[in-house]
Amino acid sequence: MRFSTGIYTAALLASAAAAPTSSSTLVVNPTATDPAAVYAAQATAKTESPTSHVKGKVFDRFVTIWFENTDFQSAAAEANFDFFAKKGITLENYFAVTHPSEPNYMAAVGGDYFGLNGDPFIAVPENVSTVVNLLEDKKISWGVYQEDMPYSGYQGFSWVNKKTGKKDYVRKHNPAVLFNSVANDADRLSKIKNLTMFQQDLKANKLPQWMFITPNMTSDAHDAPIGTAGTWLRTFLEPLLNDKNFMQNTMVLITFDEDSTHPKQNRAFSVLLGDAIPKNLVGTTDSNFYNHYSEIATIEANWDTHTLGRYDVGANLQQCRQAHE
Questions:
Q1: Where does the signal peptide begin and end (predicted)?
Q2: Domain holding 93: CATH number?
Q3: What pTM value is reported for the model?
Q4: Residue 67's pLDDT is what?
Q5: Cα–Cα distance for residue pair 140/207, rounded to 1 Å
Q6: Does 223 qualify as catalytic in the annotation?
Q7: For the chain, what is the domain count?
């Protein structure tokens, strides 16, 4: 199934007039970016943190953290990313699926990027399923955490941080809202939250079983050196590795959306780590071929979900999943 930019634009116009499909409704236009509308929405935005305890074959919680536009060797040489590589499995043949950023994010939850070749405001038609459908069918809780997103369920193209003046949040790095099956459902939107909610959910023991985490445009190396991203990751993730409650049977994937200077190769530095990693594989390298579709394929195999019937079907499973078979 392929969609042209024209079809995307038509879908966007239709979605702007459509109300969320659940019984809960949004008070303001969720795509509005002017400060007055955003601040009004902040006070009334619905936020939910549902939990579940569905056992997986290998892991019970999956967390993926995405960074930006960095060559494999540059990320591997950065001290903090190297620190985490030594605590997990380096996937040395993990590849992005295309350029630029947005279609890679789309692929990671949709199993396809549907021919998208830019970073526009996209609204994928509502009949296109995502990993959210697979998780909900199995009653597996999920959540998306976005650094500097102004409120839960925000769908604006970007948001300028009023303290720093930087456009640190961008819609194109928030994969779930690119799909109208999520964007037109207020209950689903309530699970797409500012990253500050992660710490609140952690303390309240209300983290979901599947999480997609996106640092802001400074923290993810898009608008700053790779060392800035490494410092951010070390600050965020290292304490979690020592949190036995969080880490219990948890798998974390650190990855990048695409490389920077090798567009045809497009190899993305990626590391698997967490309590679900067998001890004999810690500090090792996996040379099998993987790409962003492997994320979905691994989820499908771990929880025995349906497939999306797209490129997730033929994607290789990540090694710790294979090691338990």
A1: 1-18
A2: 3.40.720
A3: 0.90
A4: 99
A5: 11
A6: yes
A7: 1
